[in-house]
């Protein structure tokens, strides 16, 4: 039987998420990102199309590398203005019953004690449909406004991230035993205090002595999403991630990358099948290939070249305004540029890439490939990405929203359903159970969070703490 | 014409908010605090009753002073487990169009740059119906888990709070000019960058150089709620608060307290009418006085005395288990106890108060008075609190939820509407405009946030920053 394709929609609480300029397209409703109606309709739409989840990106800062100014980003609305990604989730949860919600939180500026509570709360409110996209954050402008002199170094961010996740795992998995909440109205016991344990965490970055503030939620630990591309980021993903977001340029690159991620997961002691890998793609579709191509051109007409350089400035730290637009990128001495370039040249080894090429080539797909075609063409390509490229599914970005998602659901999903690739009925009620195709909403035993189950049961003398009441008769 | 009474419901994302033990009452649905249905139904109910707002309390910690243990709080579910108070707001906003939402955030553990974004986001999603209940936080258990060795001292917390609010005011009021967001599709300008200004804040506690991340929301600054009772807390409220929550024991105390708050506001240069004062009350009502008394007794039967001492332990820092239950409170050498006692003895000057009396007297009203009676009795009393006690409205706590609110809306609201005291149609669409009875949703000119309007317009050379595009033809 063919492998099911997992579908994830990629959005952000801002106007222009991955593509600059298309906010001007008459069919784009991106500027309504600040209205509940936009999110409520999007959630209903995605659930009607069998999507597993909606993944909401975030940055707590602005793209101000290009020309050393936020001016270009503001003009194009390139991820600024940007609202908080948590706030609209419950309104979407209220109108759906299966769609999952991946929320981005940059842990460099959060306290694990408070963030653990946010996710437990969302997991309760959504009845087990929440994922946490773990981001270590990359913008200096964010660090400056959060009271740090400068960004913490890249590798140190991952050390901090490892400890941060450990603290949250302890809170989610180890603090409250199953059965701690008894709700015994006769005896007057809501929670059996002997089954709730302080985690007594003393670490390098955090001290968290206490108990988790929330009772156990359906999934306990939210599904862990991660998108790190660096070697350190890949090690982190291999250890923690249950959903990995990648952006290979070609199916061949995808095959190599997915094999590498799965073998790293295996080396970290995990079943690679417990890690779902999503390729970033933008799909422009319509009734026929020709109509799809016409639509693609109509989006390109609105794309902003300078906006894309502003995005690339934030992603790479390189101010492209300081270079000749036609200067070959390989002449720029910058690690990030080299890794972007490595992808670009792999896709097209005979071409020399310049800043102008980035604008031309990447205008409506962000850093991911763009697929253009009618239902058959797109479905054929997606099947190849899965069968040959080794991905479990796709992280679908938009050129216009919700139009790009609506088109995909109108044209491609029915074709993929005919091919038994996309679910018609959801098999599970929680996000994790749906992704893994199993009964339990909890992390599998091979996940690092699982080792804290029961870890604190004998660590305190709960039973000795039961004191006689001074108010006993 | 009689003064309109402003109604606010007081709830918390936990099981037992102000009253310990009543979760066991068969009509209490408090334990469904973790389900969206509870909040959605509550919001609809309150809007049907003409309530101005729902105020959601919060603590980021546990009550563990009593017996030096969290055991009693866990057993009774006294504010633990406790979920994040922000997460369910958008689901409630989606099913209402006028009800306001006051959300508690303790600024001791937040960064102003990130918190300002949360409130701007909620103000967008609710279309101008959000308030921020500013709390400086009071539990040592919270501080310990947020990486602080101990709680910051009481008065220093208010110094930090003053600066924190200043930073958020600058972001909300001064960073984006009206008209900065132009959405000019022809010229390709979403935001006019010349109208967006960095706030360049360098202070004692915070450095925030950048621009606000969000475009202006309907209210810009959320309505500011505050509940500080100490002299320093009252000074803070006089300066910043637009809704002040007080808990006098009697109408006479209320008259004194409200006069004092209004004169402090006037001394701070504000129109005292721009400050709405809410008295904490629990109203137990039914068709008649006798039925209300019977209901009151049924709640008292479930109240937990030790739970109340656990609450008082957290509020005052005094471990009552270390004292004889019948020892007079005046013998306990503790400032917080003395101030609670001052209120108790004012209400009943001839009585000696003991720990046991707290349990007996306060069993279902938390630290606020309880009104028991049929519609006429309650409406008469509420009118006296307003006309003689000087309050603008009430912060209504529950004995059981949503039962206590539903009873109030079934029995008391119709009577108050007959007396033209409670609104039948909402006069405004935003929370601030409704509270102040004016057109504009923005802070009045005499509020400290208002001084940052336009404050940064000439602070940077925005017009000099417009550079020729390196990609111009």
Summarize the topology.
2 copies of one chain form a homodimer.
Chain A: E1 6-12, H1 36-48, E2 53-57, H2 71-76, H3 89-94, E3 100-106, H4 112-125, E4 130-135, H5 140-145, H6 154-174, E5 181-184, E6 189-191, E7 201-202, E8 207-208, E9 223-226, H7 231-240, E10 243-246, H8 251-267, E11 276-285, H9 289-300, H10 305-316, H11 335-347, H12 355-361, E12 370-373, H13 375-387, E13 393-397, H14 403-418, H15 431-436
Short description:
The structure is a homodimer of 473-residue chains. By secondary structure, chain A is an alpha/beta fold.
Describe the model.
2 copies of one chain form a homodimer. Chain A has 473 residues and is α/β, with parallel strands linked by helices. Chain A has one domain: TIM Barrel, CATH 3.20.20.30. In chain A, 36% of the residues lie in helices and 13% in strands. Chain A has 15 helices and 13 strands. In chain A, strands 1-2-3-4-9-10-11-13 form an 8-stranded parallel barrel, surrounded by 7 helices. In chain A, helix 4 crosses helix 6 and helix 13 packs across helix 14. Chain A is globular, with a radius of gyration of 23 Å. About 1% of the residues of chain A have low confidence. Chains A and B meet through helix 2, helix 3, helix 4, helix 5 and strand 6 of A and helix 2, helix 3, helix 4, helix 5 and strand 6 of B.
